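[Q] Does anyone have a clean structure-token version of this?
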Amino acid sequence: MNSRRTFLAGLGAAALVPASLPAALPAALPVALPGRGPCAPPATGEYVVGVTSNPLLPGPAGELVLRTWLSVAADGTGFGILTDRYGPGSSSHLAVQSAVRNGHNYTWQGVVTRSNEPLLVGQPFTLSAHVQGGIASLDLVLMGQTFSGQGRITD
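[A] Here you go.
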């Protein structure tokens, strides 16, 4: 029977599932990076989350709103994703190969490892950030196109 009561009961049970998972679970889920084999999320380093776009670009690129997520270890390597809800062809996996921090300025560089758009695979990217007041101004350069926006960096 599908009713509001069974829906709400199921929703309540789903909310309890994360609390029942062990804290070590994320470390047990390895992510494979090209040339590095499996690795766990970094114990120290940076997490970057943000949204970038550039409506001045011609064609479909000007319609993209890219959600950007990076997880970078203390050694400057890591992984990430780019997604656009309405442009699934741009969804990509990233391998971060280097990171530089100079005060409130950050720069991460790497390469697209997988993508729904075959032309993006193997392409380099650069994500730059300037942090002020807890908010990061982001610039993502991919295939010679710059997408700007805002996000957060935690380290």
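[Q] Thanks! Anything notable?
[A] The beta strands are 31-33, 37-39, 45-53, 65-73, 78-83, 92-102, 105-115, 124-132, 135-142, 145-154.
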